[in-house]
Structure formats: C-alpha cells, structure tokens
Amino acid sequence: MRIIVYGSLRRNQGNSHWMTNGQWLGDHVISGFELYDLGHYPAVVPGVGTVYCEVYRIDSSTLAELDALRTKSGEYKRALIATPYGGAWMYVYQRPVEGLRQLKGGDWVKRAEES
User: Fold this and answer.
1) DSSP assignment of 56-102
2) pLDDT of 2-50, one tens digit each?
3) Is the dihedral of CA 28, 88, 47, 101 positive or negative?
4) Rounded to 5, what percent of the chain is helix, strand, coil?
5) Which residues of 88-115 are buried (b: 16+ CB within 10 A; e: fewer)?
6) Which domain holds residue 58?
7) pLDDT tens-digit readout, 42-90
8) How far apart are CA 78 and CA 101, in angstroms?
9) Which sign does the torsion angle of CA 49, 37, 108, 22 carry?
10) Cα–Cα distances in angstroms (integers) from residue 36 to residues 12, 74, 103, in the given order
11) Cα–Cα dist 97/87, whole Å
12) At CB < 8 A and 24+ separation, what contacts does 56-59 make?
C-alpha cells in the first residue's frame, strides 16, 4: 500500500523516523487541498491550493502505527488520493482551521519562509 506524507513525516522532518521501513516512491504535488500550521505538525484540508508531499510504499503494520498516531483522537481521517504511483492514503484534518496559519506555498519544509 502507499501513503502520502506532507509534513512531519517527510524526509528530514521531526517524525520522519516513522517512514524508516517505507520505500520512498517520489515527490508529488496534490491539488485541491490547503496546508495549515498546527505548531509541530501540519494539517491538510480540502481547498483551492496545492500541497507538496512525498509518496511511500509501506506495509500494513506501519499503516496501523500511523493510524494510531493520527486517527485515534479523531483529528485526522484517511482519504484515498490518486498519485502517479497509484492510489495512496493521506491523512486529512477533521477539525476547523479558522484562526490557524495557512501555508499558502503548500510546503511544510519551507514553512519558516512564510513567517
């Protein structure tokens, strides 16, 4: 199975160790979503922007661990998104984003440049 990561799970980011057993397939830009800054990690919601991300092939145990990390509190829900590498799961934020800083450039790695 494949997963799209767009924030702290990306290479050289704070939670990239979760992807150690995954196979990086490539970079990708998704349209129809907006990226928001939650502090230590981001949120993606449907919208009019684009978001820079990476696509990985992962096993079911890694997906289960990520589900426990991301979906247990209801903060995120998995959605299946088309990529050049095939359909991939992406965690979409489920809470309101009003008052949060939108990263209009769509790239979590470059968030400091948008301050």
Assistant:
1) EE--HHHHHHHHHHHHTTSSEEEEEE--TTS-EEEEEE-S--TTSEE
2) 999 998 889 888 888 888 889 999 999 999 999 999 988 899 999 999 9
3) negative
4) 20, 45, 35
5) bbbbbbeeebeebebbebbbbeeeeeee
6) 2-112
7) 999 999 999 999 999 999 998 998 888 777 788 999 999 999 999 999 9
8) 22
9) negative
10) 19, 17, 6
11) 26
12) 56/2, 56/3, 56/5, 56/19, 56/22, 56/23, 56/24, 56/25, 57/1, 57/2, 57/22, 57/23, 57/25, 57/85, 58/1, 58/2, 58/3, 58/19, 58/21, 58/22, 58/23, 59/1, 59/21
Q: How long a stretch of residues is the chain?
A: 115
Angle value at C-alpha 40, between 33 and 15, nearest 5 degrees: 90
> What's the structural domain count of the chain?
1
Tokens 């990226």, residue located: 35
Q: What is the CATH number of the domain that holds 10?
A: 3.10.490.10
33 and 47 Cβ atoms separated by less than 8 Å = yes
